[in-house]
User: Fold these one by one.
Assistant:
Number 1:
Amino acid sequence: MMVCCILPALIFAANLRNSMSFRNIKSLLALVFSGFFLLSALSAQASGDPAPGGKLNPADVIIEHISDGHEFHFFSIGEFHATVPLPVILYSPQRGWDFFLSSKFHHGHDAHNGYRLEHGKIHAVKEDGLTVDESVTVYDISLTRNVVQLFIALILLVWIMTGIAGKYRRGEGTKKAPKGLQNAIEPVITFVRDEVAKPNLGKKHQKYLPYLLTVFFFILINNLFGLMPGSANVTGNIAFTAMLGIISFFVILFSTNGHFWKHIFWPPVPHAVKPILVPVELLGVFTKPFALIIRLFANMTAGHVIMLSFICLIFIFGEMSKSLGYGASPLFIALVVFIYMIEILVAFIQAFIFTNLTAVFIGQAFEETHHEEEHH
């Protein structure tokens, strides 16, 4: 199973190496790592509300980084904040519509147009700009960083796939060998078809292959985006994984047949056991998409929490003793590098697992009677 999970990442990396010089890849990785640790360290030191006594509050820092927000925050140096503000769209039955950029809040320090940003949420405030006005209802439909990054991932996915499809129409990859990004993507598509769709869906694999490929690459792109400094952890958001799970749930339901529901409500077990097994089988229909939702959410959130925890430990040790902080920095940075490399692999693994389990559940939904007989 682990070999199947790792293989898409290795195929992609090997073909990417053929399309780029290895020296350029090493330089790019060195630049990414250096920028990641520097920006993460500066951001962790400057962001978040300090705990009583002016000390760093690791919980606030970690929650702020893995939660949604109204701006892309890259790093802070003193009073300078490298951010990209996002549009704020508010509606209140009492006050009407409001449109402005999140920079008007000055990172939560100021109120604007009777609204204030606190811990990622916008509240209506009174004239003093501090007291929350409970009599005003606020509906926040802003373009948060999760939403913006979701659209960016969608545009990138469509651009990549339409570009590759155009190359195939021109004969590249059919009459002559594929090149560049097409050379890296094609083996991954073939892997999903041969190792995920065909074994689980049999003759119907062509019908479901577009959906499986879309799910795989959409999750993969968002997973990789989430590892970039200052980006949003979209796949670590339960709302995102819930929507993917719900879509898969309906695809599974629409793929069912009479044999599937007969197995649910009249399982092939002794009659005395049927009253016990029927509720379990019926519950299993809903636990399958729930497992997809929680697995992706938990795994992608855990990696970010671990890396941020190691970075926060540098500053926690530094508050105890500067020499201890500097001395522990190489160890924790090495641990973050190690976890970061694992997270790149996990980005591929989780995309594969979600796609593979979806194919397994769909295959079980239209499994015919003779499969059960062969099993017995």
Note: The chain has two domains: 2-28+145-375, 87-142.
Number 2:
Amino acid sequence: MKPTLFVLAAGMGSRYGGLKQLDGLGPNGETIMDYSIFDAIRGGFGKVVFVIRKDFEQDFRNKILSKYENHIPVELVFQALDSLPSGFACPADRVKPWGTNHAVLMGKDVIQEPFAVINADDFYGRDSFAVLGKALAEMNGKVNDYCMVGYRVGNTLSESGSVARGVCETNAEGYLTTVVERTAIERIDGKVSFTDENAQLVTIADNTPVSMNMWGFTPDYFKYSEDYFVEFLKENMGNLKSEYFIPLMVNKLINDGTARVKVLDTTSKWFGVTYAEDRQGVVDKIQSLVDAGDYPAKLF
């Protein structure tokens, strides 16, 4: 059974002011997502599921899904503020989505195989999909044994300013022990540094693994996520900004001793449009990958 790629794309419409401006960054107007799906196909994935908001379904089908139709099976699921467990109602004045792990929960009825989770607007690179596809293929029939792609922090920085990253700590066997969100990571005097909670400047090695929201799960993850979401809502219902994030769930499962998460190394360089001024750099990086023969000039 081939693994499934689950693409978190519910934030798309709002971020781009409608899908019409979904940014074409490749030589033939390809989006970052097109490269992810191209890489997933060659990494051995058998299906793509997108989670989006219902209000741009038609636009998404016409502009996005139609591209992939002859290349890989695709499905849509929808994230809505009122997609909550029974007994809970969404506060009337809440506008913020419930977060990445809530988005993951939307896939529970259509995904029965090991699956990867990625952001729609991050460029993950060919090697990362090859590494993750191989790991997921070996997870068939397993439970409580997950993985994530740990990017070397030096391969994820922006030239335009500091970035926030989930800095990972691992044990001797390479399993995740914790993910700590660090803000203001940048290269200072040639070294990767961030300011910690005590306002101290901390330097970390270039190859320190960070999470770029590229996870590998088996379907048992859905049940844990449903159960814990109930706990989360009981505690956070009154906070209109609270979000149910993937690392929150993963940290809980690790701390409880319920599951373990293997951190997979990749040589891929991550890039994305964190700042408006990053855009041209991304266009140039994609062009250089095409020039090097890593991608065809026209993907689909």
Note: Residues 220-236 form the longest helix (17 residues).
